Amino acid sequence: MTRNWSAVLVLLGMIGMVAYGCAGGTASQPEATATVKPAAKTSTARQPVEGSHTDRTYIAPNARLSDYKAVYVAPPAMDTTEERNEKVNEFLTQLQTTIQSSGENALRNTRRFELVTTNEQEAKAKGKYLTLRNDVLVHFGSTAARFWVGMGAGRSKLVVVVSLEDPATQDVALKYTGWGGAVMGWGSQILDKMRADGIAIEQYFVGLIK
């Protein structure tokens, strides 16, 4: 009988040690690495910030755009989740031109700057100038083969991160992450929607300039 009680006590002791390890061992566990979500200032087309228009907008607190006489509109940086081929590259080039010209025209129409140009040397000649940058990601929603022959492409997505930056200091004066795309559509409809979204994003961004 004594031997049985001894065995029971040993078993209870082992259970208690396991229970203590489960309950009290939390502090000794390695902490999970926190995933840092992109903020409006650090947003990129590949890792865009989410949320409302306000959440996706960064305005430098001490930015004085009146100090700048010119804006250089840089060629948008184009990226895609699709495999590159001649047709995909052709559309990306078309969209690049659309976005760049839209940004240029919208900025010029504000009449806030003496010069808005796609020639960086012309902007430099004015002295202190800003650079308009666009970081663009295109997701067609299907394989390139299906897309270009006009079959249903499924959900498409366009991400445009547009910013005004001081090339001399690398400071960001204004930045906005815009979204576009379509849930469903045929090839030509998807392309037209992306072009329209690209123009709208540029216009919205320029409208943020105070």
Task: Summarize the topology.
Elements: H1 2-24, E1 57-59, E2 70-73, E3 77-80, H2 86-110, E4 115-117, H3 120-125, E5 129-139, H4 144-148, E6 157-165, E7 172-180, H5 187-207
Parallel strand pairs: 2-4, 2-5, 3-5
Antiparallel strand pairs: 1-7, 5-6, 6-7
Keywords:
single chain, 210 residues, alpha/beta, Double Stranded RNA Binding Domain, seven-stranded mixed beta sheet, 5 helices, 7 strands, 20% strand
Care to give the gist of this entry?
The chain is of the alpha/beta class.
Separation, N- and C-terminal Cα atoms:
89 Å
Per the CATH scheme, the topology name is: Double Stranded RNA Binding Domain
Number of helices: 5
Label the overall shape: globular
Low-confidence stretches: 5-36
Whole-angstrom Rg: 27 Å
Q: State the name of the first-level CATH class.
A: Alpha Beta
Q: Averaging pLDDT over every residue, what do you get?
A: 81
Class per helix and strand makeup: alpha/beta
Sheet with the most strands? Answer: 7 strands, mixed
Structure description:
By secondary structure, the chain is of the alpha/beta class. It has a single domain, classed as Putative neuraminyllactose-binding hemagglutinin homolog like domain (Double Stranded RNA Binding Domain, 2-Layer Sandwich). It has five helices and seven strands, in the order H-E-E-E-H-E-H-E-H-E-E-H. Strands 1, 2, 3, 4, 5, 6 and 7 form a seven-stranded mixed β-sheet that branches. Strand 6 (157-165) and strand 7 form a beta hairpin. It is globular.
